[in-house]
Specification:
By secondary structure, the protein is of the alpha/beta class. The chain has a single domain, classed as Nucleotidyltransferase, domain 5 (2-Layer Sandwich). It is about 45% helix and about 15% strand. It has a 6-stranded mixed β-sheet with strand order 5-4-1-2-3-6. α6 crosses α7. The longest helix has 19 residues. The termini are far apart.
Length: about 240
């Protein structure tokens, strides 16, 4: 089983953006055979919409801000409402609904986490352990986890966290099981791995949905209900809501 993981938002609990007070980490679980078909479909969509020559990378934030200075200039077509709607409708049909895969996701309500704990756990590492537990539970006998590189220091920290969990184990699974059932590798964004780009779009869509922005997303994003139908298990929304 191939597993692609990506994040949405940032994990900083000291400076929280009121417009996006959520951190999310998600995983796309898919067989190698099915991924080859999905990869081909993504490449065809890139060629059709972005005149891709093999170098275009789908990124949710760039699709939403096509004229931003950090955005690939080929994203400019997304400024046209009709083209934008056509792209997301095609993605819903040709990618979201067309293949067999599972989604696992963990979302952190950052302000609630900061307010609930004197020394809150790092949202990224909390989410990573949560995902790792569920990947083993809902994935294959072996699961090759791929994550996008985020910078030398953060890469080293995440590798160390995976090694720590491989030695200590996680909730419901022993260290031996973690080692036997998973491998972990980080890849550069420039490697243009479509699985990472797919989970980026999926996770950003789901996060906005849980932030209550669904109405604004119509015609401007993927369809959240289609993605929710792909969950391997209910998403984690942490901290959990207290009962009245």
């Amino acid at each position: 089983m191939l597993v692609f993981i990506d994040e949405t938002g940032d994990h900083n609990l000291e400076k929280i953006d009121d417009q996006y007070p959520l951190f999310g980490l998600g995983a796309l679980l898919i067989s190698e055979e099915e991924y080859l078909k999905m990869d081909t479909a993504i490449r065809l969509m890139k060629e059709e919409f972005f005149l891709d020559d093999g170098t275009f990378i789908l990124h949710s934030s760039e699709l939403k801000r096509p004229v931003h200075k950090r955005s690939d200039t080929r994203n400019v077509i997304m400024g046209n409402p009709e083209t934008r709607r056509a792209f997301y409708e095609a993605f819903d049909e040709r990618i979201v609904s067309a293949f067999k895969y599972k989604i696992i996701a963990c979302f952190i309500r950052k302000q609630r986490m900061a307010d609930s704990y004197i020394t809150p756990e790092n949202p990224y590492y909390f989410s990573f352990e949560n995902l790792l537990n569920r990947i083993i539970t809902h994935g294959g006998e072996t699961n090759a986890i791929l994550a996008e590189k985020r910078g030398p220091e953060l890469n080293a920290e995440l590798h160390s966290e995976y090694e720590r969990l491989s030695k200590l184990g996680i909730h419901f699974h022993s260290a031996d099981t973690v080692v036997a059932r998973t491998t972990f590798k980080m890849v550069d964004k420039k490697e243009n791995v479509n699985g990472l780009q797919v989970i980026d779009l999926f996770l950003a869509c789901l996060a906005k949905h849980y932030l209550g922005k669904t109405q604004k997303m119509i015609g401007n994003d993927l369809t959240p209900k289609l993605l929710e139908g792909k969950y391997a298990c209910p998403p984690t929304l942490f901290p959990y809501r207290r009962k009245p």
